[in-house]
Amino acid sequence: MRDRKLPDHVSCWLAEPLPSDCRVALQRLSTDRLTKLAERDGRVQLGTLGRGNHFVELQRDAEDRLWVMIHSGSRGIGQAISQWHLDRARQVSRQRLACLSASSDAGQDYLHDMAWARRYASANRRAMLLFVEEVLFEVVGCRLDWASFVETDHDHLIREQHFGREHWVHRKGAQPASLNKPGLIPGSMGTRSYLVRGRGCAESLSSSSHGAGRALPRSVARQQIGQRQLLREMHGVWFDDQRCDQLRDEAPSAYKDVQAVLRAQRDLTAIVRELRPMLAYKR
After folding, report:
1. One of 71, 85, 156, 210 is an active-site residue; which one?
2. pTM of the entire structure?
């Protein structure tokens, strides 16, 4: 891994210690506090998987090709950025439902830091893909086909044009689905996922779901789903069964039927490829 060429925005984070040219390339955040947090925690968290519904999966398509799907984001630093600016907005507005003007200094600081978090999340996923590729090469002697790489995210604020005007579009739990744009819609750790393309539906602001979505809150899932049920639902998919108790709230039955979700949004996306899980890893 270390002797391989990494994408520029990944290599500067994986190097230890961080070389001076990478420190210059790393854009500072809006406050010294956040910048120091990024330098301290962001560096060691890059290439790591979040908890909850985050995952690494090996999947197989109808032609028996192997796919790697990763769901993870900006880790703790992204949450810290969000909380910092939320607290700042509440101080300004003195209301629980707070806002910032995009043209204000505070708004520009938020947009700057959010863009950094998106770049960090992308670098994090790519770093994990490189680690997965290293394991696959050692075990079965194969490399990833990077020409097939698809990336999308589902928590961002983007300036876009809709209905003849420019708007700030905030997608939380939704992904872009502009005309022919590739997207990924996972089901659950034991069910199918889908590679899709957007249909550019104007009424949805060219957006779609980013996954099946939960059918049961985590607390309810842990009450209703036992370890035996989880093992039954995961039949045929490898996972760390020593973590059955911790993963009960991630059982397939805790999620909606992804095929029903796709049918409900057939005006938003078209299915390109169906992917069946072979191995699912969650923390």
Report:
1. 210
2. 0.88
